[in-house]
Amino acid sequence: MLSTPRIVAVVPCHNEEAAVARVVTDLLAAVPGIEVHVYDNCSTDGTAEAARRAGAHVRREEEKGKGNVVRRAFADLDADVYVLIDGDDTYDVADVPTLIETLLAGPYDHVVGVRRQVTSTAYRSGHESGNRFFNALVTFAFRRKVSDMFSGYRVFSRRFVKSFPGLSRGFEIETELTVHAVNARMPQAEVAVGFRDRAEGSESKLRTYHDGFRILGVFGQLLFHERPFLVTGAFSLALFVLGLALGLPVVAEFASTGLVPRFPTAFLAASLVILAGVFLLMGVLLSGQAKIRREASRLFYLRQPAPPWSGGDVPYRAGSHGAEQRRQLP
């Protein structure tokens, strides 16, 4: 008989006094036995008191930024299943049992709550199109379909959490979580979850363009770190094509006249071709290092215990509604 897994919820909060109590009480009601840990991230209102009164364990993280909270929580807490959910009450907590059931029935290491708007104004202007752009970017770069890489509603196994380096500081943490799962080829699934407007009296911390550029920068760093040959190969190809475009007319002129009147152009073309070769060689070397690093990461991942597989008989049943949610995903 399957023993009940230990489940903890991590709730990052910055000035969420208006919403956090409902998130905590809904979590405690939805999943019997769950431990709810609210991380007060430099709040200046009554977030900590509201969460404590609702029944949560409250911790304080002095380094501002959601990434700092997630890194701290993953280091602090030990459990079989980890639930990550924002404290702004925009995600439907009633979907938590479905996410947990999916993780354990897989078993998977990562289950993403793909947002489906309950209200037409849940997504801020520009966020939905930005999300689609980054989803397509990650899908292309890592050859693994991603439907909602910015979702803050996720469930993890212990071996995901304890093998995740967690280098990001702010909202770009979701990008790092997604890339870690995709690049490590961890078994994962997606489940549709409800997404609604923020609670009245609370204010979004997201800055569309500022955070978008930060996320793009982090994605570029992760791409170069994890897929170096793709990046250096693109630069190498661009330099080689440019070198050919500049150099072929010079070569043709030399073949017909025996002269090189445009020597600076010839020198530039040759330099570009040489640089293309340097970038290509650098990509080969960095790819070898990345492969060694992935192998080491994989071995560390395998040292952690697998999720308590239930063979489909899990302690939290979502019923037909959960099955319908999974069928709606593309």
From TrEMBL:
TM helices/strands, residue ranges: 229-251, 263-286
Family matches, as SUPFAM superfamilies: Nucleotide-diphospho-sugar transferases
Name this protein carries in UniProt: Glycosyltransferase family 2 protein
Pfam families noted in UniProt: Glycos_transf_2 (PF00535)
Species this protein is from: Kocuria aegyptia
High-level lineage: Bacteria, Bacillati, Actinomycetota, Actinomycetes, Micrococcales
Family classification: Belongs to the glycosyltransferase 2 family.
Regions annotated as coiled coil: none
Gene3D superfamilies reported in the protein's UniProt record: Spore Coat Polysaccharide Biosynthesis Protein SpsA, Chain A (3.90.550.10)
InterPro entries: Glyco_trans_2-like, Glycosyltransferase_2, Nucleotide-diphossugar_trans
Domain of life: Bacteria
Transmembrane keyword on record: yes
Glycosyltransferase 2-like domain sequence ranges: 10-162
